[in-house]
Amino acid sequence: MPAQVHIEVIGMYMRITAVCAALLLCGCEKAMQDMYNQPKYKPLATSTLWRNGQSARPDEPATIARSAGASAATSSGRLGEEALPERAAPIYPIDESGHVKADLLPQSARPDSQVNPLPVTMELLKRGQERFNIYCSPCHSEAGDGDGMVARRGFPHPPTYHSDKLRKAPDSHIYGVITNGYGVMYSYADRVDPPDRWAIVAYIRALQLSQHASAADMPAEARSALEKSGK
To answer: CA 74 to CA 91: how far, in whole Å?
Structure first.
């Protein structure tokens, strides 16, 4: 076979190979698009699959649709309702029907509220710590100094809770920021229920006190032990 013909045959095979490879790549892209654009119903669309003709299905009994409220005992909400009976007593004041009292909401019965309306108990602080570590610490850090893991990776650092400005801010200011957002922080109203917002406020106050407490603020027994230690 002449060299020229040999080269032309090789070139033809290379072109055929390139075309086949391009077709295969197009097939891969189509498969990816099928993953991205899966068949689905739009909200309130009709469906012939169900007798009532509706594509939206009601929640099954004893299921949790999403992580929300007291059932969300972890960031994923997977702990579920089985953990709720373990709570010996309600953390928040409740009425006869078992609902949290409406006066916890500053925008309703107490629009001028500046002070946390919940009694500060150890149970409340533990609940606030749990919610704070889930929703707040990624940016604010567990110490509340604004150096959370998200901020360390490029997100703007939030202000430290231990500044004079935030230590002097009223409780309702912190509650309002959780509810409405502030600056680059978006609202957490759809994730944190109003009572839990007040629990977080109480825990933030405890964090602030932990960094700015004096010996005079300590109980007598603890102060005496500190003095005897010589520290």
So the answer is: 17
**For 48-99, how does the pLDDT look when each residue is reduced to its tens digit (9 = 90+)?**
888 888 888 877 776 655 555 544 554 444 444 444 444 444 455 555 655 5
- Residues 182-224 pLDDT 10s: 888 988 988 888 889 999 999 999 999 988 877 777 778 877 8
pLDDT 10s digits, 145-182:
999 999 999 999 999 999 999 999 988 889 989 988 88
Q: Which fold has domain 79-217?
A: Cytochrome Bc1 Complex; Chain D, domain 2 (1.10.760)
How many residues comprise the chain? 231
Domain ranges of the chain: 1-36, 79-217
HEC secondary structure over the chain: CCHHHHHHHHHHHHHHHHHHHHHHHHHHHHHHHHHHCCCCCCCCCECCCCCCCECCCCCCCCCCCCCCHHHCCCCCCCCCHHHHHHCCCCCCCECCCCCECHHHCCCCCCCCCCCCCCCCCHHHHHHHHHHHHHHCHHHHCCCCCCCCHHHHCCCCCCCCCCCHHHHHCCHHHHHHHHHHCECCECCCCCCCCHHHHHHHHHHHHHHHHHHHCCHHHCCHHHHHHHHHHCC
